[in-house]
Structure to design on (124 residues):
């Protein structure tokens, strides 16, 4: 029967260690990977900052739209009321029986129409 046990020769090279140039190349690759990892972490932080800024800007935009919508709702009735309050001598609605109620209805309807329009746009 043949001998199956491995024999160890003193002149055989030890294959458990890497050659010196391979170790140096490996160390360079590890350092490169560390640098890439640092860069990625920095970019992740920058992206997080950008996301937070964008969210803040969206909140401001939503609030600005709401303020603009309420301003638009108030402007037309305000303009009509200031015109009506100018005390002109020849104002037909002063001679009409229902002139004042019609005027108030016009004010309310313009405000309501503006409210509905901005609500449909999603501003309120």
């Amino acid at each position: 029967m043949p001998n199956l046990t491995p024999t160890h020769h003193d002149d055989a090279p030890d294959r458990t260690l890497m050659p010196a140039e391979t170790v140096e190349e490996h160390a360079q690759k590890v350092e490169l990977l560390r640098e890439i990892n640092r860069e990625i972490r920095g970019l992740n932080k920058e992206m997080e900052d950008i996301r937070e800024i964008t969210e803040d800007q969206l909140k401001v935009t939503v609030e600005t739209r709401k303020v603009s919508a309420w301003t638009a709702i108030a402007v037309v009735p305000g303009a009509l009321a200031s015109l009506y309050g100018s005390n002109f001598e020849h104002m037909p609605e002063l001679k009409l029986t229902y002139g004042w109620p019609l005027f108030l209805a016009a004010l309310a309807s313009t405000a309501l129409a503006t409210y509905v329009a901005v609500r449909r746009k999603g501003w309120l």
